[in-house]
Amino acid sequence: MQMPDPNQMILDRKAHIVARLQDVLPDDAVIHSDNEVRAYECDALTAYKCPPLAAVLPANTAEVAAVLRICHEERVPVVPRGSGTSLAGGALPTADAIILGVSKLADVLETDYDNRFIRVQTGRTNLSVTGAVEHEGFFYAPDPSSQLACAIAGNVAMNSGGAHCLKYGVTTNNLLGVTMVTMEGEVVEIGGAHLDASGYDLLGLICGSEGQLGVVTEATLRILAKPEGARPILMAFDSNEVAGACVSDIIRAGVLPVAIEFMDRPCIEACEAFAKAGYPDCEALLIVEVEGSEAEITEQLEAIKAIAVTHNPVEMRESKSAAESAAIWLGRKSAFGAMGQINDYMCLDGTIPVSELPLVLRRISELSDEFGLKVANVFHAGDGNMHPLILFDANKPGDLETCEAFGAEILKLCVEVGGCLTGEHGVGIEKRDLMHVQFDHADLEMQLRVKDVFDPGWLLNPAKVFPLDVTEGRRQ
Amino acid sequence: MSEVLERVVRPAAEAELASIVKEAVTSKSSFQIRGGDTRPIGNPLAAAQVLETGGLTGITLYDPGALTLVARAGTPLSDIEAALDAEGQMLPFEPMDHRALLGTTGTPTIGGVVATNASGPRRLKAGSCRDSLIGVRFVTGEGEVVKNGGRVMKNVTGYDLVKLMAGSYGTLGVMTEVSFKVLPKPQATAVLLFEGLDTAEATACLADAMRSPFDVSGAAHIPVGVDGAPVTMIRIEGLEQSVSYRADALAKELRAHGTAEIETDPVRTEAGWRYVRDAEAFSGKPGDVWRVSVKPSDGQRVIAAAGAEDAFLDWQGGLVWLRMAEGVPLRDRIADIPGHATLIRGAGQRAFQPEPMALSRLAQGLRAKFDPHSLFNPGRMI
Question: Which positions fall inside the FAD-binding PCMH-type domain (chain A) (predicted)?
């Protein structure tokens, strides 16, 4: 993955730029020594690293605006950063860029249970949003795996999802309003506590724009009353095809589980070795979770079991207690950790139509033989969001490149069958150069023009999302 | 609509539409975009010709096992609902039928639903049209065909222009195809009915219902019901036994607000929510009709300040429907309540709430990129 060469004229002016930033921020909020800026050289896509020119940690919207005004005047690129958990390189800097971290913006500004919203500063972590309202029986629905660490700012930037979005939707469906600072340093309010914002749906446009249209400093989020209870059932099948067909049938039958998770044999074995969750020996495994009162849970699980039985499951294991529920989820939740134990891995994120599941899994396995790298599949089957994990050895020369080439083939396959390159992680730099696979010139050009409106100088996170050759003329 | 000589173009395919627009760029000839012509909402517009989408019809893909449906924009909504119904599925957002309220007679199209982001009572739980919309194809004001989103429900690849197109009233492009995430139709419905609550009591009752874990899918209050008394309606939907359990449990939890009658007759519950969805109370009655979006607890404040002839609340109070004497400047009366008001029926005032300068500049900027020659619905929205 290439990044543009840094602008020497900016590097030469580092002292001047840092001094100007120090004029508007406390000293400890401007990080500029060679040693300290290393803390911001990458996000969770650790294969790519570059220390930024400097990093700033403003503590409120006014400070964010002041920073952006200076960077706009000085023509310095700005890379916004939440908690740095992006798997797509969304917060990867270049040497001539300022990292704008929102970690000091972590306050809850307002909670309103009658109107079911919370207003927070966007440096707050996803899980701590739920933490702020759960004593009143509420929760914030989008639940990316990184929810302990990831910030709402990054969730908004990437339109993050999670395991439970089949029922509750993704970030964009749970976002009511934002305070955003434009690259010029202007503060705009979009939406609010009311259900529909007026005018064009700018909120929908900003959510998922990967920090390229503005820096979101505050967000009004929908909170929901917690269901009375939840219970998973584990179902084992002797082929991926059959498990896939079962998913489709469950959805078609009118039951809407909150989560349907799928794991294939390589993934099951790795999790078993790592977490010892006691999973059955099988080719494919589904974890289906339903919510509600005791009676509702029983009614839904009965319906699901009746469908599953027609697909001759190897085993069905309905949780009878909190401990059993935890055991069922244990393996799934430790899937990434388990993989990390075995190898370095790259986690893909393409989405496919659920009906194409058997075909896609078969093709991935063929590609795995072709490229000589193992792959394990774990994903949100209800919505077709796949997470193939390609295992490689970072210390072996050429392995990363082979892995990336293999990943690209899988993502092309996702597009080919009617899906997309990324379901919830974002494009960042990781999928940037594959955008041509999914979009024609006119499709991309329209998106670029949107950025032209919000950031005509192309200073905000400029080297992301779109292939570099497409944006070259605009980034100068 | 009063024009006698109306030039109408009706492309039969997307490519034809694109070339019609390309020609119009040269001739600088603007279009009024028309689906079924059942929702003429927005500021009056003056266009050289009418561009009908009724030639672009057909469901192009329906995959019930993946909860997705794709259709050309001119497809009648009734065709889509029939196809979904046959599989026990539905559009989650319960789109309003504007015909009775606006006195129109055409056939609503799915493109019109999207262009107006038409959403009904279930919006409270399932989101509005934009939340179910997962893909779109459209022709820009330069005659380019653009696609965004797709047919899968989790997709963050590139900017989300899908949401931008929803509710843009045909001012950013002519939609040719739209994709939706659909949902299973509920097997059963129960409605809790409270009689005689005043608007403040009803607001508290609805808020308590929404705070409960019972997954309410409709929450409305009609201050003057059909028989004159106030009616508060709370809807529960889902699997049979679950609905009956939740309705009883919710009635118990809301005891402090009175004794709820529980209605489960499908004909009566459907009629009740259609009454709310389509603002039937205002059909055939004179005056301006407004739709005000506020924080739910502020709905009662809007009613108190508006001085309307008639009013009711949907979305727990977050959507206020008002019937006002013609020409009354509603926005002045409710200026201190955060939110926005849309003039759905009436003249002489801006249909859409004027926006703060910064937002208006962004909106103008987008319009200039999507439709640089202002060919589409000039004046309708911005």
Answer: 48-226
Structural domains of chain A, ranges and CATH numbers in brackets = 8-103 (3.30.43.10), 108-225 (3.30.465.10), 229-332 (3.30.70.3450), 343-429 (3.30.70.2740)
Considering the domain architecture, whether residues B244 and B226 belong to the same structural domain is answered as: yes
Domain identity same for B305 and B263:
no
Residues of chain A numbered 294-323 and touching chain B (CB < 8 Å)? 295-296, 299-300, 303
Co-location of B212 and B323 in the same domain: no
Structural domain that includes position B97: 1-185+352-382
Sheet containing B59-63: give its strands across: B59-63, B68-72, B174-181, B133-139, B145-149
Beta strands in B81-184, from DSSP E residues, in sequence order: 89-90, 133-139, 145-149, 174-181, 183-184
B31 and B116, same domain (yes or no): yes
Closest CA to A267 of A351, A364, A356, A355: A364
Q: Using the 3D structure, point to which of B257, B277, B297 is the last residue of a domain.
A: B277
Residues B120 and B213 in one domain: no
Structure tokens at B21: 């627009």
The pLDDT tens digits for A107-143 are 999 999 999 999 999 999 999 999 999 999 999 999 9
Give me Rg for the CA atoms of chain A.
Answer: 23
How many domains is chain B built from? 3
Confirm if A180 and A214 have CB atoms less than 8 A apart.
Answer: yes
Per-residue pLDDT tens digits for B141-197: 999 999 999 999 999 999 999 999 999 999 999 999 999 999 999 999 999 999 999
Residues of chain A in contact with residue B152, where contact means CB-CB under 8 angstroms, are 351-353, 383-385, 418-420, 423
* pLDDT tens digits for range B290-311: 999 999 999 999 999 999 999 9
Nearest-CA neighbor of B127 among B369, B318, B358? B318
* Biggest CA pair distance of chain B: 67
Phi, psi of A327 (to 5 degrees): -65, -40
Residues B158, A383: C-beta atoms closer than 8 Å:
no
Q: Are residue B84 and residue B155 in the same domain, yes or no?
A: yes
**Sheet with strand A215-222: strands edge to edge:** A108-112, A117-121, A215-222, A175-181, A187-191
**B65 and A435 in contact by Cβ < 8 A?**
no
CA dist B308 → A407, A414, B225, B282, B315 (Å): 61, 54, 15, 12, 19
Query: How close does chain A come to B145, measured CA to CA in Å?
Result: 7
From residue B277, give the alpha-carbon distance in Å to each of B109, B119, B156, B215.
17, 8, 32, 19
ipTM: 0.97
**Could you tell me if B159 and B107 lie in one domain?**
yes
CA distances from A342 to A45, A327, A336, A352 (A): 18, 21, 10, 27
Asked if residue B19 and residue B165 are part of one domain, the reply reads yes
pLDDT at A1: 84
Taking the alpha carbons at both ends of chain B, their separation in whole angstroms is 20
As given in the structure block, the two tokens for residue A399 are: 């392995």
Last residue of a domain, one of B252, B277, B302: B277
